[in-house]
Amino acid sequence: MLMLNARRCCLFFLCLSWTLVSAAEDTAPPTVLITGSNASHGLAFVEEYAALGWRVIASCRTPAKADRLNALAAKYPDVVVEELDIVDDVEIAALRAKYEGQPIDVLLLNGAINSFRFGPMSFRKMDYEWFEEILRVNIIGQMKVAEAFQPNVEASQQKKIIAMTSTGGSITETEIPIAPAYRASKAGLNMLMRAYAQAMERKGVIVGIVAPGTVDTEDYMNAEDPDSVPSNYRNMMRMNRLAPRTAIDDMIALIDRMTLEDSGVFYEWTGRVIPW
Question: Domain spanning 29-268 has what CATH number?
Answer without folding.
Answer: 3.40.50.720
